[in-house]
Amino acid sequence: MAFCNNCGNKLGTNQTFCSACGEKHEGASLVTEKTRTGQSSGFFSKKVKIGLAAVVMLAIGLFVAHQILSHRYAPENVVANFEEAVTDGDEKALLDLLHPSTKSLELDEESVAGFISYLEKESDVDELVKDLYEQTVRMEGYKKTEALTDQSGNEILTLKRGEKKFGLYPQYEIEVIPFKVEMTSNLENVELTFHGKKKKVKSPDEYVDFGEFLPGTSKVKAVYKGEYATLKDEFEIPFSEVASDNLVRFQADLEGDYVSIYSNEYEATLFVNGKSTGKTIDEIDEFGPIDTNGKVVLHAEYKTEKGKIKTEEIEVSNQGAIDLNFKEEELYWEDSALIAQETLGDGELEADMEEMIEAFMKNYVQHSVQSINERDFDIVSPFIDPAGPSYEETRNYLDYLESEGITEETTGITIRGIEQQEHGISVKTEESYNIYYNDGTGKAKTFHSEHFLTQEGNELKLHSLVKTEEIYSREI
């Protein structure tokens, strides 16, 4: 059966012209049914073959792409890249792999480089990688994973599943967990600079919050600008030593020079470079921080009934003790005048009496301290009047000191005044001691005391301790 080449109309046997369109047909140009259905050759047409080949190639391409993307976004591949970056110390590569667990954590190459150092120092990298691989297995089974920790138990990182790429491939990332950093200093109004942030610590009791950071090699700068000194220092924060539960509390202690100030009048006011501090010597334990380059000058002033008196000005040129002593004739002018007027009754000069009393008091104090340390009342008893209250008081006091394990040493005694009275002599002293306690601590103390002495011939005895007042104390 034949058909028209032009319109496809069915032609009769030996029909030369198409009855439908008029197309002339010759025998060689007739299209048979077999030819029309494409079955005469037994193969697909060229166009069909090309189409089929394109489909096959596309399928292969999609399969290859699937394999590549599956490998690229596989959790094992992420862990392998992490291991390689840490091992090679490649902060750039590691920065691309890390993801902060909080919005406030900022990552850059510098912080990531410090993080690599921290991991190498404070954790077993091989063990860490092993734990990450174990997390990949758990995550593929959709099981919960826990954050991995450093040697001190602080959480540092974990493997996390992120959003799907192209809606098909889950993305995995190393999520890093920050440390919260808080800092203070041992001085007031210290400016701290950490990772470009500047904050001021108003008092040692205040911790300033600097935010969240990766653990690693981090330094903080501290600057103190005071009235008498400028102090600067730089500290490296030992995250592993001071961190607990991912909280770092660090104290940037500045070391300044301090001086101890002594005086023979502890109610005197301290002056620095001509300006009053508003504090007495008694109120100041250690003075500082202070420059010891000679730029600071100290003196003390005290108001007596006769007027204001002043010590010499002393330049602070080294760390240690500064003695701001008044002239005794100015400080004790009233007592000195009284001494000049009194006699012992036999016409001897007061200068002789003063020397004798001073010698007696120093001898008494020396033997008193010796009796305390040797636990022997008989050492000091010859200096005490048995008829006076000091005799039994001293015996009982020695027993108390022995029970407490306290020992002493004298560091100085000064006669502040002498007054002849009807039945004896009143002696005012300033006595300084180092007192040591049984727990290993010690204190330097100074007392203003008044003693009453009796006299029999040329022999003096301590009758009673009228009063005593502690005017200075500091740890030693």
TrEMBL record:
Q: Which residues cross the membrane?
A: 50-69
The UniProt keyword set, sorted, is:
Antibiotic resistance, Cell membrane, Membrane, Metal-binding, Transmembrane, Transmembrane helix, Zinc, Zinc-finger
**What are the residue boundaries of the TcaA 4th domain, all occurrences included?**
255-326
The protein's topology relative to the membrane is: Single-pass membrane protein
Residue ranges constituting the TcaA protein NTF2-like domain according to the UniProt record = 354-465
Task: Look up the domain of life of the source.
Answer: Bacteria
The similarity annotation says: Belongs to the tcaA family.
UniProt name for this protein = Membrane-associated protein
List the top taxonomic levels of the source. Answer: Bacteria, Bacillati, Bacillota, Bacilli, Bacillales
